[in-house]
Amino acid sequence: MSKILAFTNQKGGVGKTTSTANIGAGLVRAGKRVLLVDLDPQANLTKGLGLVDADKNVYGALLKEYPLKAYKAHDMWLVAGSPALSGFEKLKGDELDREFLLKELLEPVREKFDYILLDCPPALALVTLNAYACSQELYIPLEAQLYATDGLEKVLDLVSRVQRRLNPELKVGGIFFTRHDARKVLRRETAEQMRTKYPKLVLNSFIRESIALGEAPHLAKDIFTYAPQSAGATDYQALVAEILTR
């Protein structure tokens, strides 16, 4: 039975999609069978892995218009995202068991994969609740700067409520820093403050600022395929190793 990991933060632009793609690729390099699910209405994970004009996506599957469809994306499998996900809460918000629609959708495929990675939208709404309700672990990418850390308490508060009401197995697997530059005093000090405040949650691995990480999705590649000798590849390899040992 696969382990489901959600990558989440209420703030956009902190590296959720980049991390989902590259951690997935790193897990494949470690011999794991990996499914990625694009839950962000921007569908950047889908575009960044080169899947265009998918005839079936997670939104249609959640609405039971057709069975869940996974497409091959390099050595991983990917359930495509859709802009229509932005209207999911309006459509399903009044339904009974609305928080468990994704769990029900993924249950039949869990035996086929070692890991299922969920790329969550930058909002703590119904799609995110569905991700939390079916996950075993959450990973929170974070920039070590003031505004990026402000939303962390809201994420942790939602996790606590989900644990009480929807998914007692849910836990925070870890917080990790993205676009990190230890030469900058503010970044370094903020990271140390977070490590002091959340000593059991902040991971040792961090992702340095890297041009290659920004370039790879434009060529529909993960960082290991695009630039295997880059700092981004080195950092994500270390992060994957740490996730596997936690």
From TrEMBL:
Name of this chain's protein: Chromosome partitioning protein
**What PANTHER family does the entry give?**
COBYRINIC ACID AC-DIAMIDE SYNTHASE (PTHR13696:SF99), P-LOOP CONTAINING NUCLEOSIDE TRIPHOSPHATE HYDROLASE (PTHR13696)
What top-level branch of life does the organism fall under? Answer: Bacteria
The species this protein belongs to is Hymenobacter artigasi
Q: Name one Pfam family in it.
A: AAA_31
Domain AAA span(s) in chain numbering: 3-172
